[in-house]
């Protein structure tokens, strides 16, 4: 690479870094950004009712709650097995084994947490809520340009890593959940969340594994376990 090429790349990097710093001041919630760029997976009954709101953890979510929920309480829960319903899951970058590990782990942790706090059943009734979870997307995207890469040397290295596929990958996981009256199948709550997993460190272990989403899944299990009490008598 000639000195002129290095200077040119440095200028490009400085411009990109400046744009990233400016856009950070006008950040949009992850869930809104995601839904603005991707089609609905079709897992939820109705996406048109979803509204941007704040979850119990302070994160922005898309949620709809039926007005009937305030008048109706349930006594038991039916927990369906977790669905892995890829709308654009990058199968070429994520192995079937890793996807199966995520599905099995999330399914197990949800059952353990909810069975410890609530009465689970397999029998539908008007007094039983049916809980449906699905992971509908897992995105792996090259890590954004860092502030340290504003320096000419760092900028050049950053561009080379991007070109050669060695830049770390950011992990984004999409969770959709629906709660229904198990007897009538009428939805009472719909939810869509977008969360960040642990970055895939391309120079150390360049394959996406359960470990990259494990902490995020654990957080979602805790949220579910703590929040379902509002459904019950």
At a glance:
By secondary structure, the protein is an alpha/beta fold. Helix content is 34%, strand content 23%.
How does this structure look, described?
Strands 1, 2, 3, 4, 5, 6 and 7 form a seven-stranded mixed beta sheet that branches. The protein has 233 residues and is α/β, with parallel strands linked by helices. Helix content is 34%, strand content 23%. The protein contains five helices and seven strands; from the N terminus they run ααββββαβαββα.
- Seen as an oligomer or otherwise, the chain set is single chain
Report the strand count: 7
What is the N-to-C order of secondary-structure elements (H for helix, E for strand)? HHEEEEHEHEEH
Structural class: alpha/beta
Distance between the termini: 70 Å
Helical run tally: 5
Radius of gyration, CA atoms, in whole angstroms: 21 Å
Shape: globular
Unreliable stretches covering 5 or more consecutive residues: 4-26, 145-167, 200-205
Main beta-sheet strand count, sense and barrel state? 7 strands, mixed
Mean pLDDT: 76
* Residue fraction in strands: 15-25%
Helicity, in percent?
25-40%
List keywords for this structure.
single chain; 233 residues; alpha/beta; seven-stranded mixed sheet; 5 helices
Furnish the topology, listing elements before pairings.
Elements: H1 3-24, H2 30-37, E1 51-54, E2 60-65, E3 76-79, E4 83-84, H3 96-117, E5 128-142, H4 152-164, E6 169-181, E7 187-196, H5 214-227
């Amino acid at each position: 690479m000639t000195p002129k090429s290095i200077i040119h790349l440095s200028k490009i990097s400085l411009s990109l870094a400046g744009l990233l710093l400016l856009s950070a001041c006008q950040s949009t919630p992850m869930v809104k950004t995601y839904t603005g760029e991707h089609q609905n997976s079709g897992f939820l009954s109705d996406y048109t009712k979803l509204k941007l709101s704040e979850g119990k953890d302070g994160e922005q979510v898309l949620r709809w709650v039926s007005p009937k929920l305030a008048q109706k309480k349930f006594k038991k829960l039916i927990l369906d097995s977790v669905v892995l319903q890829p709308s654009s899951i990058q199968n070429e970058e994520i192995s079937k084994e890793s996807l199966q590990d995520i599905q099995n782990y999330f399914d197990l942790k949800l059952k353990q947490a909810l069975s410890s706090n609530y009465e689970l059943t397999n029998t539908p009734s008007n007094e039983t809520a049916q809980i449906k979870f699905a992971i509908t997307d897992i995105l792996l995207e090259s890590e954004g340009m860092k502030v340290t890469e504003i320096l000419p040397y760092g900028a050049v290295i950053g561009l080379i890593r991007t070109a050669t596929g060695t830049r770390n990958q950011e992990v984004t996981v999409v969770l959709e959940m629906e709660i229904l009256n198990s007897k009538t199948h009428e939805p009472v709550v719909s939810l869509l969340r977008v969360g960040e997993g642990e970055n895939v460190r391309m120079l150390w272990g360049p394959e996406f594994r359960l470990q990259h989403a494990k902490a995020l899944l654990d957080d979602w299990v805790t949220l579910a376990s703590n929040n379902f009490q509002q459904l019950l008598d």
